[in-house]
Design goal:
With about 475 residues, this protein is an alpha+beta fold. It folds into three domains: about 120 residues, no CATH class; about 140 residues, Beta-Lactamase (2-Layer Sandwich), CATH 3.30.450; about 170 residues, Hypothetical protein af1432 (Orthogonal Bundle). The protein has 14 helices and five strands. Helix 1 runs antiparallel to helix 4, helix 9 packs antiparallel against helix 10 and helix 10 packs across helix 11. The longest helix has about 70 residues. It starts with 19 loop residues before the first helix and ends in a 13-residue tail after the last helix.
Length: about 475
């Protein structure tokens, strides 16, 4: 089954087997999911950048603030005694461990390494021109980047009992391999922030310092924040999806109910229109008793022809109304002419021939009968142009009027009149066929001739018969 329908439940199924609600839900879900992914990604990036920038700034400010106040600057100016080295090592390790620093190096203006957690490195000369980071720091510029080193994370723990200076911290840098000293027993690969700061004294750069800060804790906290934000965005997206879907479903149901009510109202209006037209036709039948039921029979004949021609939809209703109202203009014909039992004089016939104009004028101002008025006006036109009132020919005559002409003539021929007896069904059919191409549209006649005789006879039975019935010879 291609589709199914449920009025108020909005379950119309398309060719893909999905209802409008399902298609809307999927489309909305896809849009909101894509939006949520983009929003979560952008949020994670911005939060990450902010945290990293603030961590870098804070680390550099903290390290720079210790020189000259906590750390003596003598190390950049002269060699230190053994006791001075111990004091400096104690102060540096204690204060920098507060910021999770696992390794550090101090350089003088010449690029000589004057302090390190690895005592074997002290005194090593580095060329600043081959180290952009060192050169920038000695030039008074701060810089920082992410790096991976091998170090003991306990060195970045405040109040740690790990000794310093007796083993290589084994940090891996771009400017040299680690020394041959034995690494600590708990060393491992760490993701760190490598931060370089110039060391100043009286606004003069006297050296540079680099620290490697273990940021694994910050990264873990940042990941939790990002996941929390992503979860909040996902939850908000889900709630928004539910709300919008609910609004769509309720709106769709309301629209369907209104559409159903409107459809019912339209059907009722159509029935009211037809009942009104039927009442008008009955009023005409009362006035013109000799043609009683004529409009209903013509409608029945027209419906058979229309079915043979394959006409469907709104045209059917319009043609039916045209058949009912075709003689409404006879209201304007005097009784002495309309009900005259003998043949009409030329003057009387001229008056009678004006009833199509009267009828069209009567209903022309009714919007839903605008097309019907054309049938009413032209239902006595002929295919060869010899009809009235406008002498139209061929397809200039509205299709409804061409169909009506055949049905009206057949009913007239199979109904008694005061001045003649009704023709038989067979004789009337033959007369219709004889007038094909002159009085009647050939295509309409061919469609009429395909109608079974039994169907025509069932309708003709209700025609008035005041004379003995004619039979086919």
């Amino acid at each position: 089954m291609v589709g199914a329908r449920k009025r108020d439940g909005v379950v119309d199924l398309g060719r893909d087997g999905l209802s409008p609600v399902a298609r809307f839900s999927l489309a909305l879900g896809a849009v909101l999911a894509a939006t949520a992914l983009v929003l979560a990604g952008v949020s994670a990036y911005l939060i990450g950048r902010y945290v990293e920038d603030e961590t870098t700034r804070f680390t550099q400010d903290a390290v720079a603030s210790h020189f000259g106040s906590v750390f003596r600057n003598d190390v950049f100016e002269r060699g230190l005694s053994s006791d001075e080295k111990k004091v400096l090592t104690r102060d540096v390790t204690f204060h920098l461990s507060i910021y999770n620093v696992v390794a550090t190096q101090f350089f003088d203006r010449d690029g000589t390494l004057v302090f390190s957690y690895d005592g074997d490195e002290i005194g090593r000369q580095l060329d600043p021109s081959s180290m952009p980071e060192l050169a920038a720091a000695l030039g008074g510029m701060r810089n920082a980047e992410r790096a991976t080193i091998i170090a003991d994370p306990r060195l970045g723990t405040p109040a740690s009992t790990v000794g310093f200076g007796s083993y290589d911290t084994h940090h891996v840098t771009a400017y040299g391999a680690p020394s041959g000293a034995t690494p600590g027993p708990a060393t491992r690969e760490l993701s760190v922030l490598e931060a370089w700061v110039p060391v100043r004294q009286r606004d003069q750069v006297i050296g540079a310092a680099v620290v490697w800060r273990d940021v694994s804790g910050i990264d873990a906290a940042l990941a939790r924040i990002q996941l929390t934000v992503a979860a909040i965005i996902a939850l908000a997206t889900g709630l928004l999806w539910l709300v919008l879907r609910g609004v769509y479903v309720r709106s769709s149901q309301q629209i369907m109910r209104q559409a159903t009510a409107l459809e019912g109202a339209l059907v009722e209006r159509e029935l009211t229109y037809d009942a009104t037209l039927g009442a008008l036709t009955n009023a005409l039948d009362v006035r013109d008793s000799e043609t009683g039921g004529h409009g209903d029979r013509v409608v029945s004949y027209m419906e058979l022809v229309i079915r043979e021609l394959g006409i469907v939809g709104d045209q059917m209703a319009m043609l039916r109304r045209g058949a009912l109202l075709h003689d409404i203009g006879k209201i304007g014909v005097p009784d002495n002419v309309l009900r005259k039992p003998t043949a009409l004089s030329e003057a009387e016939w001229a008056t009678m021939k004006r009833h199509p104009e009267f009828g069209a004028r009567i209903i022309a101002g009714i919007p839903f009968l605008e097309e019907v008025s054309r049938i009413v006006r032209h239902h006595h036109e002929r295919w060869d142009g010899m009809g009235y009132p406008d002498g139209l020919a061929g397809e200039q005559v509205p299709l409804g009027a061409r169909i009506f002409a055949v049905a009206d003539s057949f009913d007239a021929m199979t109904s008694d009149r005061p001045y003649r007896r009704a023709m038989s069904i067979e004789a009337a059919r033959a007369e219709i066929d004889r007038c094909r191409g002159t009085q009647f549209d050939p295509a309409v006649v061919l469609a009429f001739m395909r109608i079974p005789l039994a169907h025509l006879g069932n309708i003709a039975e209700s025609a008035p018969h005041t004379h003995p019935r004619a039979v086919a010879s």
